[in-house]
Each structure stands twice: as C-alpha cells, then as structure tokens.
Write a structure and sequence with these properties.
The chain has 281 residues and is α/β, with parallel strands linked by helices. The protein has two domains: 170 residues, NAD(P)-binding Rossmann-like Domain (Rossmann fold), CATH 3.40.50.720; 106 residues, 6-phosphogluconate dehydrogenase C-terminal fold, CATH 1.10.3660.10. The chain is built from 13 helices and eight strands. The chain has an eight-stranded mixed beta sheet with strand order 3-2-1-4-5-6-7-8, with helices on both faces. Helix 7 crosses helix 11. 36% of the residues are buried.
Length: 281
C-alpha cells in the first residue's frame, strides 16, 4: 500500500517511521510546503519520495493529513473532490474536530474520510523530532465513525492497532470539549507560566539555577510550536474559553486562601485535587 503523509513533522514523521517499520505501508510519499522538511525527511529515510499534493494523492491509497488543524480544514474538501468515487481513504490527525466535521459533513465523498486524533506527541516539531514508538499504548480517537464508510474506518483502525493504540469513539463536539480540558489547557498553562517567569526573571542564569523538576515538567510544553498550537486554540476557542474561565476561578480560590493565610482551607483544596490520583494511577 502507498501512503501519502501530508505534513512531515513530529506526528507525520513519527507515523511514517512506524507504519513502514511495521509493514503497514510499502511506500510513503511526503508532502510539505517547507523544502527543508522535505529534504530532511527524505535524507533520514522517513519517506521514500516527495511530491506535490495532487500527485501524491493520485499515487496513494491512504492520505494522512498531519498539518496544523486550520490547514487540514482548508485542504480536506479539495482532497475529497479528488478521491470521491475511488477506494482511496483520507484521515486527519488533528487535535480539533468540530471545524473539520462541518466542512466535510455534506460532501458527497464524506464516507472516504475518517476523523482521527492519535493522542501522542512531544514539545518538539519538524521531521527531526520524529521518533519511533511515539504512539505505542496511547489512545487514538475516531470521531463520528458512523459517517465513514466501513472499509475506510477499518483501514484507519488497523493502522492504529498496528501502532499498538487503544481505540476510542466519540462525537466531534464531545471530543473538542474533552481535549480542551485534558490537553489544550495544559499547553496554555505552560505558555502562561513561561511568560510569567520570563517577565520576572530577567537573568537567564537565575532561572537555570533555581528551576527544579517540578518547574521543568510544568513548563516543558511551552517549548511547543506556535504554528501548531495557535490554530488549535482558535479552532477550539469556545471550549477553551470555558476551560480558562474555570481555571481562573480555581486560581482565584487559591489566591484568596493564600492571601488569608488559610492553611486548613488550602489543605482541604489540595486534598480534593489529590483525588485525581485515583484516575491517573
């Protein structure tokens, strides 16, 4: 099988590495607007060749959209035009789904599209960030599965199973609510903390000298690529604003208790938060 990977960054590159190694794809064609990404991906053996979007789609059985979510949304209708009436399958790997669900819902080729979100990643970007086994034992979400043709859904499900991923199914809007709370707010918090520290600590040496493991783990996501995350925040703005408002409310509760030096109130609040252990352990 020939697979086109559109966007040869962390997700696209890591997918390419493992679907080749695990014999899911015989040939991988890379498409990327960045010529440096194309060259690196080919030189590193992540892909077999590069081509234009139209040519890659014409040659491929499976098309994986791994570009920023706004680019995925922009490209999908034209790709569905090209593959409508064929056995080709297109799947996006984006972190938001409501927007792409809207632009594809009434397309005559909608059945050939699978809305997917493999929940894996790092704070790094580009083809040099691609790593093997990135997806092993992580969760892959397939949204609105009833709108995809059975064979198209089966193909994408098989890919995720070969990647050792756990499959979950949900509605696109429900997906976007959940990822706003579980994923997107973590990045916003990390970006905000990094900006706060950078504003306060003008001396780089002080940050390096005093930063412990807790700070490093919390602020790690602030190294994430703005070109990837700005479109996610804008596409999922309704639910992210809801999360931010809730987060600010909790921060204000902490602020009030700290300003009042209310140790018992703080302990009670933290004990309530500790209940997350039962879910995450």
């Amino acid at each position: 099988m020939t697979t086109a990977v559109i966007g040869i960054g962390l997700i696209g590159g890591s997918l390419a590495l493992d679907i080749r190694k695990r014999h899911f794809a015989d040939k991988i064609i890379g498409v990327d607007t960045n010529p440096q990404h194309r060259n690196i991906a080919q030189l590193c053996g992540i892909i077999d060749e590069t081509d234009t979007l139209e040519n890659a789609i014409g040659k491929s059985d499976l098309i994986l959209l791994c570009t920023p979510v706004d680019a995925n949304i922009s490209m999908l209708p034209a790709i569905l035009d090209m593959i409508n009436g064929t056995s080709k399958v297109v799947a996006d790997m984006g972190s938001t789904k409501s927007g792409i669900a809207r632009v594809s819902k009434d397309h005559p080729g909608r059945g050939r599209y699978v809305a997917a979100h493999p929940m894996a990643g790092t704070e790094y970007s580009g083809p040099m960030a691609a790593i093997g086994k990135l997806f092993d034992y992580k969760t892959a979400i397939i949204c609105d599965p009833e709108l995809s043709d059975t064979d198209a859904k089966d193909l994408v499900e098989n890919m995720f199973k070969i990647l050792n991923m756990h499959l979950v199914y949900m509605n696109s809007d429900v997906h976007d609510v959940h990822v706003a709370y579980i994923s997107h707010i973590s990045h916003i918090t990390s970006f905000s903390l990094a900006l706060s520290v950078l504003e306060k600590e003008k001396e780089e040496g002080n940050i390096l000298a005093l930063a412990g493991g807790g700070f490093e783990s919390t602020v790690r996501l602030a190294k994430s690529n703005g070109e990837t995350w700005a479109p996610i925040f804008t596409e999922n703005s309704e639910y992210i604003i809801e999360v931010i408002d809730t987060y600010i409310e909790k921060m204000n509760t902490f602020r009030k208790l700290i300003s009042e030096r209310d140790a018992e109130g703080l302990k009670s609040l933290m004990e309530e938060a500790n209940k997350i252990r039962k879910i995450l352990n």
